[in-house]
Amino acid sequence: MGYQCRDCSYRGSKITSAGRCPACGSYAISRGADGASNEEPKPRTLQLTLLLALWATFAGLILFRLLS
Description:
Blueprint: E1 2-5, E2 11-12, E3 29-32, H1 45-67
Antiparallel strand pairs: 1-2, 1-3
């Protein structure tokens, strides 16, 4: 069974013996199913393409400014 801290969003399978979050020490812990954490992340090809295009544009503008 997995645990998630409501204060710092820590996710893990272990909590302290006192029932506190190991990351921040909060008692606001909720139990969740492990099945949700095993899902495959979606591919982010659109975001990667946009990121590369923006960096290329930025580099081009800097080079244009330096050479003019």
